[in-house]
Amino acid sequence: MAKTDIEIARESKMEPIADIGAKLGIGEEHLHLFGPTKAKVSFDFINSLDDKPDGKLILVTAITPTPAGEGKTTTTVGLGDSLNRIGKKATLCLREPSLGPCFGMKGGAAGGGYAQVVPMEDINLHFTGDFHAIGVAHNLLSALIDNHIYWGNQLGFDERRVAWRRVVDMNDRALRSIVSSLGGVANGFPRESGFDITVASEVMAIFCLSMSLADLEERIGRVVVGYTRTREPIHAKDLKAEGPMTVLLKEALQPNLVQTLENNPAFIHGGPFANIAHGCNSVIATKTALKLADYVVTEAGFGADLGAEKFFDIKCRLAGLNPSATVIVATVRALKMHGGVGKDDLGAENADAVKEGCDNLARHIRNVKSFGMPVVVAVNRFTADTDAEVAAIGEGVEGLGVEIIECTHWADGGAGTEALAHHVVELVNSGKSQFAPIYDDDMALWDKVKTIATKLYGADDIIADKKVRNQFADLQEDYGTLPVCMAKTQYSFSTDPNLKGAPSGHVIQIREVRLSAGAGFIVVVCGEIMTMPGLPRVPAANTIHLNEAGMVEGLF
Fold it and tell me: Looking at the annotation, which residues are catalytic?
């Protein structure tokens, strides 16, 4: 019987985190230890790196997700390990997992098989407390808003237009819409509100895009928390919230250092969702890694239409990053589903369905190339995949000028991804990257959204009612140069999660526009997007418990 991910992780021989830091030139005095196997890297050390040259940045993204799974994080870990195996100095930059999906349907997010980051249980649970700090900072601002209104409302909040909700790092649909301040005069003024999951918080987005503590504080101050009756914005700085919120985030903003099963360094820091936020790890972690390694492998959430687009158009734009190559992960099983095969029939060989499903992969390849990026496809191979099915992938994307490389990192660790590593090094050193965001800062907000929808999603047009069009017009005056953050389903290029493959000719309907002034982007909500997910009928939490030895069971 095959070992579970957690069993494999427990059998690993982890090195002391000080030894992992030493591989990157980080002295033990610059590590704030959280036990023997995880640590935060001090700002004093990070600030000393300014004059060092940057390494090469490699993005790992994927085709449109399906229930069959793609293994993007697993591939990212495998590639990082294999780069080190072939003699390169490489490190990883990943997001921290949210407890919501961990106890919900998706499970953990620390890789899998023999391509994992460890300590896996810690990373998937409370880790170093970053998400707790982000949630508390967010909710401090919520408390300050209600307290201000209670004590006279000198800023003139229109209680119908308080824009700041509360957060909790758990899937809990009962909290999506609530009425707060019930119970009489002493508890304030009742109003409708709600909770989002912590990873959807603007504080999370700010955290991951900030360059320093000073930048973090300034961004928090810019957050728009509500409006007056004359529609004038009220900012967090008007409540003097940026100071105490930054205090709560001071330690959390230092990036976390851990290791892979093969004892290679990995930074895991921050974790915004990719469909309702920008889906990338922190800028501080990425920039630190680039100063310490020759190759930095990072990932962006969900498919390339969401995670990669936001990595390029938001993170790289705002942080001044210049990526060198992109890996698109695909699996035979997922391509079958995009080719029309149901989940229950994935076990049967069907090369024709794989080839048909390659329409989805082909669009992602073209999309990533439109950013000026060299591309390689990593086929995360399963034991049940047949040679004919794998060959069909090459046939399905023939003529697009990309290599299709089989990877077996789940079973073989870094050794299963060496061919990919060699090709990535070739791409990086070829100098073929001509990276540029897909739209200019000066393009109108409406046109930025239309560019993404038509060029990347295959849509004919975008539409919105008059109220939403007016929101665009209002935001254009003061915030027109900001990038847009598209919030839509991760399961399709369209807004219909059931529309697989590479749909075209559809129309993207914009339901809502939200200003994230602190993060520095405009959130454009398309279709039905939940900022507070719910648990499935049978949540993963049902099988998670402590065994007689006091060890976690069922996390994977």
Answer: 72, 74, 95, 106, 274, 302, 382, 410
